[in-house]
Amino acid sequence: MTENGLDKSRIPTHVAVIMDGNGRWAKQQGKNRIFGHKNGVKSVRETIEAAAEIGVKYVTLYAFSTENWNRPKDEVSSLMELLVFTINKEIKTLMDNDIALQAIGDLESLPKLCLRELRKAIEKTSSNKKMTLILALSYSSKWEIINAVKKLAKQVEDKKISVTDIDEAAFSQNLCTANVPDPELLIRTSGEHRISNFLLWQIAYAELYFTDKLWPDFRKPDFYKAIADYQKRERRFGKTSEQLSTLMQ
Description:
Number of strands: 6
Radius of gyration: 19 Å
Helix content: 40-55%
Distance between the termini: 22 Å
Structural class: alpha/beta
């Protein structure tokens, strides 16, 4: 057992998080939306620390969707500036805690400064081994799936593979998350019960956990609560409970 009462043998390898509620939190404070985004950075830090402390190997944060580009220009601009500032500020923390940074999504659509700083941080932390933090930026699952289909079609066209070579494994290898294990747990804050176009292929068998906490209020105990809830569930993957019991004997 961990010091938080969690079963060490049942810690999920990969946890994905939809960080929702920054705008509503800011509105409750009588502030603009970017105030909520800024305060959400502390929740990011606490979530990463909590995950690393209990042995989670991958954490994917839904930081900015392709649909978010449709938000007011001043909010998008402020979000990009906040991203650059946060990346630069947190590199030391990532290095000190042996955490590698990666990113998925249509990264070429990011502002040049933002993309440059992101790539520098990814390169600088690439040798870290304890945990991998993945930022989903300018990301949508529909975009990712269509992109994978195009890649496979091109491979068939170039006669590198045949149509019969396309299976789940081949498809997965053409997603942004190739070589990353699928999430076992998806957490969404703010009380909404939607997936919002996030890792649709990868979460096929993930456990879903929804909390009413707005993202800026989400702290380590909330993360541990989500893990504890995950550990109470029986993951059958299409099998019956009896079949699982037999396999475990």
